[in-house]
Amino acid sequence: QHQDAGVGHRDEGSDKVYYALEGEVVVRVGEEEALLAPGMAAFAPAGAPHGVRNESASPALLLVVTAPRP
């Protein structure tokens, strides 16, 4: 579970894609935040601070894909 979209972390060597399967989450990439609902995705490029949080009482399910920096 990713809980902290405020501080986040960085993946220097890989890009990351978050794809919402169930529920809703807030994804932060850099200074921007977006609400992801099922069928929506967010991209965090290598080196960008990012994080995810679930602000609802319902569970959320994400597919997270990482790829090495080109």
Distance between the termini: 27 Å
Strand content: over 45%
What's the number of helices?
A: 0
Biggest sheet architecture: 3 strands, antiparallel
The ordered H/E elements are EEEEEE
Averaged pLDDT: 88
Anisotropy-based shape: globular
Which stretches are poorly predicted, pLDDT < 50 over at least 5 residues? 1-5
Find the count of extended strands (DSSP E, 2+ residues).
Answer: 6
Rg over CA atoms, rounded to whole Å, is 11 Å
Strand order of the largest sheet: 4-1-6
Would you mind describing this structure in some detail?
The N terminus is likely disordered. By secondary structure, the protein is mainly beta. The chain is 0% helix and 50% strand. The protein is globular. It contains no helices and six strands. The strands form two sheets. A three-stranded antiparallel beta sheet has the order 4-1-6, with no helix packed on it. Strands 3-2-5 form a three-stranded antiparallel beta sheet, with no helix packed on it.
Which key phrases capture this entry?
disordered N terminus, mainly beta, globular, three-stranded antiparallel beta sheet, single chain, 0% helix, 70 residues
Provide a concise account of the structure shown.
The protein has strands spanning 14-22, 25-29, 32-36, 41-44, 50-53, 61-68. The chain has 70 residues and is mostly beta strands.
Outline the secondary-structure elements:
Blueprint: E1 14-22, E2 25-29, E3 32-36, E4 41-44, E5 50-53, E6 61-68
Antiparallel strand pairs: 1-4, 1-6, 2-3, 2-5
